[in-house]
Amino acid sequence: DDIVSECDLDFVQLDRVEEIAEHCGVSRQNTSTKKWEEVQVMLQRFHELGVIVYFNDVPVLSNYIILNPQWIVDRISDVIRSYNANNFTHSKAIDNLAKKMKFDWDNLTNHGILNRRLLRHLWRGYGDHITFLLHLMQSFALITPFRAPSKGAMLLEYLVPSILLETKCPF
């Protein structure tokens, strides 16, 4: 039924796993705590085996179960990649919207500084999950908040240290 149709999803939220567990007869309310702990152990074991990605020990990440680990790699590589390759053009840098963000692209590729506007563009289609992805990247020190926006501005900037290794330090 509906559960089988979810096999093509890249991720689910923990509340959906709870629904599936209930459908299979395991509920937080109606069964012993031991059964729910078994669901948690199962998720952790699948994580250890690389079948899923689940960070139950990181509160800001514990609500997501990544069913397709390649999805995380793809989202991270939307941001972290070699921008210095000959004739390199990011696939999301060639549409009309991206062309209006030349300053943002230059700031990322030349100085390792990423702003939310460019990030929303890179992760378009995943708008509801940007906060999760940002927390994931920050948890693993792939990005770090860099500076608060100037007065009246709304864009927080992030430093992408791995890109700095390829470029001159902007300071």
**Spatial separation of the terminal alpha carbons:** 56 Å
Helix content: 40-55%
Low confidence ranges = none
Strand content: 5-15%
Cα-atom radius of gyration: 19 Å
Order of helices and strands: HEHHEEHHHEHHEEH
What average pLDDT do the residues reach? 79
Looking at the structure, what is the overall shape? elongated
Q: Major β-sheet, in short?
A: 3 strands, antiparallel
Spatial strand arrangement across the major sheet = 1-3-2
How many separate helices?
9
| Number of β-strand runs | 6
Structural class: mainly alpha
Key phrases:
single chain, 171 residues, mainly alpha, 3-stranded antiparallel sheet, 9 helices, 45% helix
Summarize the SSE layout with pairings.
Blueprint: H1 2-5, E1 11-13, H2 14-23, H3 33-49, E2 53-54, E3 64-66, H4 69-79, H5 96-99, H6 102-111, E4 113-115, H7 116-122, H8 130-139, E5 144-147, E6 157-159, H9 161-164
Antiparallel strand pairs: 1-3, 2-3, 4-6, 5-6
Structural description of this entry:
- By secondary structure, the chain is mainly α.
- It has nine helices and six strands.
- The strands form two sheets. It has a three-stranded antiparallel beta sheet with strand order 1-3-2, with helices on both faces.
- The longest helix is centred in the N-terminal third of the chain and has 17 residues.
- The radius of gyration is 19 Å and the shape is elongated.
- The N and C termini lie far apart (56 Å).
